[in-house]
Design a protein that fits this description.
Distance between the termini: 36 Å
Low-confidence stretches: none
CATH topology of the largest domain: Spore Coat Polysaccharide Biosynthesis Protein SpsA, Chain A
Largest sheet: 7 strands, mixed
CATH architecture of the largest domain: Alpha-Beta Complex
Number of helices: 11
Radius of gyration: 26 Å
Helix content: 40-55%
Strand content: 5-15%
Bound molecules: guanosine-5'-diphosphate-alpha-D-mannose, manganese (II) ion
CATH class of the largest domain: Alpha Beta
Shape: elongated
Length: 361
């Protein structure tokens, strides 16, 4: 049996045409199915709408209680409530064509270990031409930064199908915000992602709930998935990226202060502080953002202290190599790189074990 899970919030008007579309698409096939509407307690008439449909259609409504409104959690709730072993998730707003349900389902039956995605970005797929440039770029950049996590042209898609038992433990899923498909792809045991081209059309009724807040949640979600997939290496790369950003801040202040008339030695001493502080903050919210937050002042102080020790090491390695080993005196850049390398590892280890030492949540 195919269980079609539809998360909804304020979609009462879209439900009748959606259910009609699903019926039409499936009535000529021998697919047995149910539709589970997972509504986050919308203050509208969804309950009456579903009650009217129940006599003629295999549809039911669940309204989870006791948590914040959340698209991803709704999809998980719907999946757990499903009777079928095959799950298909789609939006309520008719952006995802019900006609393609049979093709998605067949693709899944061909290879039950696959994760099937209705994709806008493969050949013959399309997205709405009315899309704003902002939405277009957003979607593409988001897709690009998920590349190391999944082999999928459209990992943001909310139209997908999978076998329910390919996810071992639903309690271990930990999505934030909108991208439940991505979460399932990364954390599930799927052998491959198979993409079915779809034509995505924008909703006619109601409005998208995808706002800036959701975008920020997406970044946090991504970081969480990167940490899950790449562990400490992910943290180390993030730490390195923050460090590189700090170098830019350092340089910017170094020049800015001089333009404002400060002597260059003093500017050099001052520019360290904004750089080290922004590094501390970014590591706090990004690199080690999964860990519980410690009080700021003391953590900042510890971070500065380790950075200073790290810098001494950096300089010390350079000094020793160039003064003791003739080779490094000829290739000083190598000595410099060795110093930066040793200091980076030292800083990272200290940050990871001492400064941000709370366990990952
Ligand atoms: N239960 C529940 N709770 N459902 C929600 C919530 C919520 O908090 N927020 C939104 N939904 C439902 C909507 O009612 C709709 O059925 C579906 O989730 C998608 O929401 P939209 O607000 O229409 O999202 P969108 O069109 O901006 O985004 C869609 O396309 C994106 C890619 O462009 C979704 O499919 C996204 O998942 C997808 O990434
Ligand atoms: Mn939509």
């Amino acid at each position: 049996m195919l269980s079609i899970v539809v998360p909804t919030y304020l979609e009462e008007e879209n439900i009748p045409p959606l259910i009609a579309g699903i019926s039409d698409a499936l009535k000529e096939t021998d697919i047995s199915y149910e539709v589970i509407i997972v509504d986050d307690n919308s203050p509208d008439g969804i309950k009456e709408v579903i009650d009217q449909l129940i006599p003629d259609h295999p549809v039911r409504l669940i309204q989870p209680k006791g948590r914040e409104r959340d698209l991803s959690m709704s999809v998980i709730d719907g999946t757990l409530a499903a009777q079928g072993e095959h799950i298909l998730v789609m939006d309520a707003d008719l952006s995802h064509p019900p006609d393609l349900i049979p093709a998605m389902y067949r693709t899944l039956l061909e290879d039950e270990s696959a994760f099937v995605v209705g994709s806008r970005y493969v050949e013959h797929g399309s997205f709405d031409r009315r899309w704003s440039l902002w939405r277009f770029f957003n979607s593409h950049i988001a897709t690009l930064i998920t590349r190391p996590l999944v082999q999928c042209q459209d990992p943001m898609s909310g139209f997908f199908a999978f076998r329910r038992d390919q996810i071992e433990d639903y309690d271990r899923l930990n999505p934030i915000g909108y991208k439940i498909g991505l979460e399932l792809m990364v954390r599930g045991n799927f052998s491959v992602v198979r993409e079915v081209p779809i034509n995505f059309s924008d909703r006619e009724i109601g409005e998208s709930k995808l706002n800036l807040n959701q975008q920020i949640k997406f970044l946090r979600h991504l970081r969480r998935l990167y940490t899950a997939r790449f562990g400490t290496l992910g943290e180390f790369l993030s730490y390195g990226a923050v460090g590189a950003g700090g170098f830019v801040v350092d340089l910017a202040f170094y020049y800015l202060l001089q333009i404002m008339g400060m002597p260059h030695q003093l500017a050099r001493a001052c520019s360290f502080w904004p750089a080290v502080s922004s590094n501390w903050y970014l590591n706090r919210i990004a690199t080690f953002g999964e860990r519980k937050r410690r009080p700021q002042g003391r953590q900042w102080f510890e971070f500065v202290l380790t950075s200073l020790i790290g810098f001494s090491l950096n300089w010390g390695v350079y000094y020793i190599l160039t003064s003791r080993i003739a080779y490094f005196d000829d290739y000083r850049l190598l000595a410099l790189i060795a110093g930066v390398g040793v200091a980076s590892v030292f800083n990272f280890v200290m940050s990871s074990l001492v400064v941000y030492n709370e366990k990952r949540q």
